[in-house]
Amino acid sequence: MMKKSVLLSVVFFLSCLCVLAQTDSVCVFSGKVIDAKTRKPVPFVSVTDRNIGTVTNVEGEFVLKLKAEPKAVVFSCLGYKTRRMAPSELKADGKNTILMTPSSVMLNEIIVQGADAKDVVMKAIDKIGVNYPRLPNLLRGFYRETVQKRQRFISISEGVVDVYKSAYYKLDWHDGVAILKGRRLLSQRSGDTLGVKLQGGPVLPVHLDVVKERDILFNEEELNNYSFHFAIPEKTGDRMQYVIEFTPCVVLPYALYKGKFYIDQETLAFTKIEMEMDMVDPDKVTSMILRKRPSGLRFTPRELTVEIYYKTDDGVTRLNYIRNVIRFRCDWKKKLFKSNFTIVSEMVVTDRKESEGIKPIRVRDTFNRRDNFYDKVIFFEDPDFWGNENIIEPTEDLLNGIEKIKRRIAR
Questions:
Q1: pTM for this one?
Q2: Residues 133-171: b if buried by 16+ CB within 10 A, e if exposed
């Protein structure tokens, strides 16, 4: 059986629809999260008041917008102690430096007694129906995609999305994504445009949630293609996590993956999944991630990685953040120079509703795997464009990339 692709097709450059209303925020918290020992930024930290949240960018920076003053703002990240801060502890000027203390793992906690790694994975899969939402969810999320040619940004797109997910114990074709609001910048250099269609896009929270979309990894047929072994455990807050590495153990007509599962030792919930497509056979990888290319273009994949973060509240583990990186090289047969490209897609859940009354997104509003954001484009101009929506703070290099593209467009 040909392996189902992890991702879905999306045209190389994206734009977004704009139909979302804005309201005023009440509380805004911002700052930078750093390691208490090394003083280095801590990326991908979950920052939340429990339901509404965001994540830190790769420079550790965040902005959290809330409609009411919270009891506490919670900072949590794998490998660090969870930190809860009262609003009074956070400065109003946004110059907050949040220190995260690394979690220590005692030697006797490293030893896993009498356990088989694959058996732990199988038991964790069996408990998905218990550990994950048993009611429909409507998630609000922020999605960003950047495209770089070598070190230069050539396309930047971002949007607010709604994601409908049915209960995790069953698959449901109603699961889908709707684009509510967005904007895009596209380089004006003619050489930056490629007519290729790759895998990726704002459908990440549906089709990369491998705990729910089990055909990717978590079915018996696929699991038999991998070997599993324990790595050194880690902590999230005060909770120990099994770390189980998996690697291909067979050769198949399609590309397999390698990576790590992080599994709560008490509940057996998957809390983080790292996946990297095996690049041993580039042709197999190409067939899985490339849908279309112009005649005469040579496409060479370099990397496809996925990180999926889950967050547990009140005994239920839910999707929190997804990040996908695709690196590849393109060169034309009659041209001397080759170009390296990097596409980074990420989506953070910023708010959620969960109840039996949650209805699926209407079919006419759903972002289809063959859709693309192309015609309805909004220029990066209004500094208050996002209003009270929670977003992932742009990094310094991204901000510089935005300014460079805007200056080129202006000329």
A1: 0.90
A2: beebbbbbbbbbbbbbbeeebbbbbbbbbbbbbbbbeee
